[in-house]
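Aim 2 progress. For Short-chain dehydrogenase, the working sequence is reproduced below.
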Amino acid sequence: MDIRNKSVVVTGGSRGLGLGLVEALVEHGASVTVVARESDALAAVRSKLGVNTVAADIRDEAAARTIIATLRPDILVLNAGAKPVMAHLDQISWAEFTAPWEHDVKAGLHWLQAALNLPLAPGSRVLVVSSGAAVGGSPMSGGYGGAKRMLWMMAKYANRVSTRRELGICFQTIIPRQMILGTGIGDTAAGAYAKALGIEPKEFVTRFGAPMPPRTFGENVISVLSDPKHAEGFAFGVKGDDGVTMMEGLAD
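Predicted structure tokens for this construct:
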């Protein structure tokens, strides 16, 4: 896909990984709309990058339908996620444990359903941002790893619906394979694990390879969208020193 002049909606695009992706999309000539809750963060990204912005709670089913129906994006990136409570299994409440499900999974369901039921135009792409925690777990973040794996699975289910209904919409999953400093979730998780080990967060994240700044994450996602060698992929791992690795194909 040539993303120049393509309409792109990015949820959670006002900071962290989402902002890195928005910066890359703008650099590559896309027309971007950022959806997030905080008006100050939206104003900052609008002023800095000249993108369109919409203030909304991504868990709001009506908002998801309205935004997609109004903008009809060529590319939809579901990136927004809540910071999990960091605590060991024996110290976490049920409400804290399930918070990622009430936020990330609930929002994912509403936006995926909106994309399928409007539906988006044939040839549209929907990228669901998961997490490395969906692969190996994250013992201090409650239900976060399971929630991110569920999003991965939901994207696969959405592809099956698209195929069955002959919609021509391609759903793919992006899996950051390392904690990334400079993001709310990355800083929170790295800080908790580093504290438990008695080391600094920077030292902890370097155990997983070369750092991947948010902008590098954005360029990796651009590669998934535009490089023909990724056309048959469904799940892609992205990492600072490895770039993009296809973890699962569309036909798997």
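The chain has a mean pLDDT of 93. This observation will guide construct design in the next reporting period.
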